[in-house]
Amino acid sequence: MNRQNLDASVCAEIATLEAEILGFEREKAACAEQERDFRLREDPDKDLFFASEIFELTRERLRLEVEIDIRRKKIRRRELGLGDAPIVDSGGLF
Predict the structure, then answer these.
(1) What is the pTM for the complete model shown?
(2) Residue 78's CB: how many other CB atoms inside 10 A?
(3) What distance lies between CA 52 and its chain's CA centroid?
């Protein structure tokens, strides 16, 4: 199904999701640049390390990648005419 066959509300939702993706991508690029800066500034000879800062930036960058992936999948579901997947109870104990 192409976007010309989608109704206006779905197109608006897709546009919102795409805008969110762009924002997340900008944040991710900023995190990657800060991480790269910290890595370049590390100096083992002077005992200068930024492990916690690099860890936090890496974690934030990975979180942003997940947010981007979630929104891309939502867009794909909308394009296919599917809503959010319902929670299916398998009938198990857990």
Answers:
(1) 0.78
(2) 20
(3) 22
